[in-house]
Amino acid sequence: MKYFTSWPAGLPGRPIKTTAMKQFLVFIRKEFFHVFRDRRTLLIMFGLPLVQIVLFGYALTSEVKNITLTVIDNSRDENSRQLVNKIRSSSYFVVDESSIDYNDVLAAFRKGSAKCALIFPAGFGNDLLHQGKAQIQILTDGSDPNTAKTVVNYISSITTAYQQEISRQRPLKYLIIPEPRMLYNEEGNGSLNFIPGVMALVLMIVCTALTSVSVVREKETGTMEILLVSPFKPLLVLIAKAVPYLILSLLNIIMILLLAVFVLNVTIKGSIILLFLESMLFIITCLSFGLMISNTTNSQQTALLLSMMGLMIPTMIFTGFMFPLENMPKIFQLISNLVPSRWYFLIIKAVMLKGLGFKYIWKETLVLLAMTLILLTIALKKFKTRLS
Amino acid sequence: MTDKVISCRELTKRFGDFYAVDKITFDVSKGEIFGFLGANGAGKTTAMRILCGLSFPTSGQATVAGYDVYTQQESIKKNIGYMSQKFSLYENLTVEENITFFGGVYGVPAATIKERSRQLISNLGLTNEAKKLVAGLPLGWKQKLAFSVAIFHEPKIVFLDEPTGGVDPVTRRQFWDMIYEAAANGITVFVTTHYMDEAEYCNRVTIMVDGKVEALDTPGNLKQQFNASSMDEVFYQLARRATRSAD
Which CATH number fits domain A67-177: 3.40.1710.10, 3.40.50.10490, 3.30.420.40, 3.40.47.10? Predict the structure, then answer.
């Protein structure tokens, strides 16, 4: 049996020409084969954002409608009645004015028959007219913090509106405490805030986890060794590994944005090109992070664990789209500065929701750029030390 | 000197106080099947990594395919093939795609790849499997394919790192037929193995103990020299002298 003798031989003495670009393309093609043949990769890549968008868009909506609000009016004056009417006329609340005692309210909360309550102290209107300020108490069920926060926000904004209205009629300025805090999202569209959040989260996970796993996989299967022995430059191996994920991640962004616009009715206010360029930068940040992880680990499990578990939770917490960063202790606020997605989230919010241009986000862009350079340098250094 | 494709002179690799490779000296001629033996931790892998252009020696000289291991690693890489004990093709690529990929990485022109891979696939009897994923092939076939891929770009030397691990005796025999054929075509074969019957197939064998070359000759001469009936015995006599345990 002859295996090789009948090979069409190359020209004798033919020098093997290695055109780097050609090698590079061959490599990238191979990477695409890997991605398209691995259902899990594809599922993570495109299934994850889909699920997240649907979950955050519909299931996890923070919008509250027709919630029963127990009102206890101990003052029963003109002002308290006016405010209650305002609340009633909003579509958010069904007002329940069953005259129950303050102590009974707490019992009702424990039983779960009350979800939120608004309490006017005796002399509410009097305080307001004569001292210029008065207090109301909003009780909410803290075991459901999202609804609770939303309720507080709604009532606060209604109260502010009312306060402005009466201030206009009279010479004095009136103040009803608590101060409302609803700085964004006036129309109450819950999708607005989380779309940038999902983009940040998905890109962070997809890029970081998948690149790190794809490099480590080659180490595990032993093919990395073959690649290193080949004339293919080690640095090109890393870049070629990252390129398919860059392309796929850009497709991913398009998908997320299409879903946001056509399914969740979010309008993109700023420049799409800017949005894309910034996203590309963030993707490169995440890819560098993935490469760094892959150069410090040897098994796919470790890489996956590090990038999924190690990143998912900090990303969710410190990006600022689920939990407001301003309310966190100082130390956590400082830590959040180290999370790349936090900066990307700010950028995307500014461009997409507020329609701001580059001059408002250059600082954030610079931070991302610096992070990318640092991560990439570490990744390459680690890669080189592994080689020798 | 022209037909010496590998040449080492007092090649040394030191990690701190540890001499992984300690002043090894040998030559390998063109078309030779050169067995590189040694217990685990004897320094085989380290020496091989240097010769493949993966790491630098601490001292000594060596040239591979005429290129210097200190300064011409890139040229060395272009002129060698490599196959390791771990199965080293992509499981989720087809037979054809694997050949195309590695051919491309080594810069074989596309037309040559096409023609040669068609021929190779038919010679290996894999015509029906050409478009199937490598993952589905039996191990023996995979190893034969891996070897063919390693010499696909017609390197001057092919390094085989325990290529037949886990393969059944019949397939191993076939595998060695392939090695003989490659050697007959002028490709130098540098092979490490733990199977002593395979050592008998080599033209010359070197046995490393504790980073040093303790024996280097044809299997026949070695058996005579150590007054042994088989390579197994030769190896055992030498390996017993080792003071270092596996790393």
Answer: 3.40.1710.10
